[in-house]
Amino acid sequence: MGHAEQMEAVPHGLLPRGSSALYALGDDPRFSYCTYVPAEIRSGELLVTVHGTERDAIGIRDAFVPFAEQHGVTILSPLFPAGIDRPDDLDNYKFIRFGHLRFDRLLMRMVVAAERRTGRRLGPLRLVGFSGGAQFVHRFLYLHPGLVASATIAAPGRITLLDDTRDWWAGTRDVQDVFGTSLDLATLRSVPVQVVVGADDTDTGVRSRVEQAKTLHDNYRNCGISSRLDVVPHSRHDLAGLVPPITDFLDGQLRNTGRFAS
Predict the structure, then answer these.
(1) Cis peptide leading into residue 169 (ω within 30°)
(2) 13: confidence class by pLDDT, cuts 50, 70, 90
(3) pLDDT at residue 11 is higher than 70
(4) What is the pLDDT of residue 205?
(5) Contact call for residues 155 and 137 (beta carbons, < 8 A)
(6) Angstrom distance (rounded) from CA 28 to CA 33
């Protein structure tokens, strides 16, 4: 069943305004999500904030609460636990597919669950991912560009380039074989993208996150995607230093719709 079909029936809302607890995903309670519902909801758009390797789903949600209140948008923050199927695994969600699991589909099921709890239809998605979450966000974008209003890719460590000479996950040559769907470059080109990184985020081995961010941004521009690059001075691998340029980007995107008060 497609996402649009899943959104047909939305019962009475159950979530109070403000910050929610972490709710287990009903049909697979290994996974959970939390939300933030502003005092005044002025848009059905949903800000999805995706945690890094440390799994601070509540922390990344709370970093954007002032923005959510300003613009009247709801936040959903998924929690993808470490150690699913393999006790030592930290990276499962970052590459979308892990064994029999599809983390893109898990997120879409969380959106549907949040719709039921809030009593509202939510979407399109404004994605923000930090570090490991940034890896998830840009790969989710490749598979589901039609669901995404904008994507912020903050300090990714490992990147997937739009490159039909390399297989997944370094490139996208075999996306059809791996995921059963082909790249829709035309729709991708309609999604505004922000790539953001701290200027001092350099302690990652062979290639720094700064180099990775610039490479990804250049790849997008070469493919006709509207990409904004922010390199934040005096900032290392820390979400707090990246929040101001992220909210500036999101503010501009919402203002461009002409439907949001500030």
Answers:
(1) yes
(2) low
(3) no
(4) 66
(5) no
(6) 12
Checking 123-126 for CB contacts under 8 A at 24+ apart, the result is 123/3, 123/7, 123/44, 123/45, 123/46, 123/147, 124/45, 124/46, 124/148, 124/149, 125/45, 125/46, 125/48, 125/149, 126/45, 126/46, 126/47, 126/48, 126/73, 126/150, 126/151, 126/152, 126/250, 126/253
Tell whether omega for the bond before 124 is within 30 degrees of 0, i.e. cis.
yes
- 245 pLDDT exceeds 80? yes
Pairing of strands 125-130, 148-154: parallel
* Chain centre distance of CA 95: 13
Is residue 7's pLDDT more than 70?
A: no
pLDDT of residue 14: 62
Contact yes or no for 128/50 (Cβ under 8 A): yes
Q: Which of 16-30, 152-166, 180-194, 215-229 has the lowest mean pLDDT?
A: 16-30
- Alpha carbons 61 and 193: distance in angstroms, whole number: 20
- Let me know if domain 3-257 sits in CATH 3.40.50.1820: yes
